[in-house]
Design a protein that fits this description.
Elements (H helix, E strand, L loop, with lengths): L1 H58 L7 H14 L5 H22 L3 H4 L2 H36 L3 H5 L26
Helix pairs in contact: 1-2, 1-5, 2-3
Length: 186
């Protein structure tokens, strides 16, 4: 039994160690892809946050009586810019979308503003940015699905928890975020 058993034990141990290393590296790769896809959402959200002050500056002269609407957008933007978990970020984004929707609804009462080029340009940029955010969210959720499947599948599930990998959270649209953005040029 001596030498054959020793070779078998060494081969089995080498296979287990090799699998553990390969599994760990695969999980690290998936986690890094997941983090990269989250950063892509962050880039698009930053673009959106940068557009909002320009919008507010453009409508400020028309909204002398609507300071509450402007404050609502400003406050929602400030809350959304705080680092948060995907669920909290989705909630903050829903509030910001609602505030922007209210601003556009109030803008309907100002015919001069509706025809203003600044508002039209902003609406086009907002629509483009919303599409990019949607694409980034979809990519992130695809990455979450791949990552979660990987850490929950056998036999990786045996190692994943012991190695500190936990399930990632999906970015789920909340409230007004579930509704499509409607831009009107009437």
């Amino acid at each position: 039994m001596g030498i054959v058993a020793t070779i078998v034990v060494v081969v089995v141990v080498a296979l287990v160690v090799g699998y553990a290393i390969s599994s760990y590296n695969g999980l690290v790769k998936r986690r890094n892809q997941l983090e990269e896809s989250w950063r892509q959402i962050d880039v698009q959200l930053k673009r959106r946050y940068d557009l909002i002050p320009n919008l507010l500056e453009g409508v400020k002269k028309y909204f002398q009586q609507e300071q509450e609407v402007l404050s609502e957008v400003t406050n929602a933007r400030s809350r959304a810019m705080q680092p948060q978990s995907p669920r909290q970020q989705a909630d903050s984004e829903a509030q910001l979308s609602g505030a922007i929707g209210n601003l556009f609804a109030v803008a309907e009462n100002y015919p001069d503003l509706k025809s203003d080029r600044v508002l039209r340009d902003f609406q086009e940029e907002l629509t483009s940015t919303e599409n990019k955010i949607s694409f980034a969210r979809q990519h992130y959720n695809d990455s979450v699905g791949t990552y979660n499947t990987r850490i929950q599948s056998f036999p990786a599930v045996i190692f994943s928890r012991a190695m500190g990998f936990s399930e990632a959270e999906y970015f789920e649209a909340q409230g007004p975020e579930r509704e499509s953005v409607t831009v009107s040029y009437d």
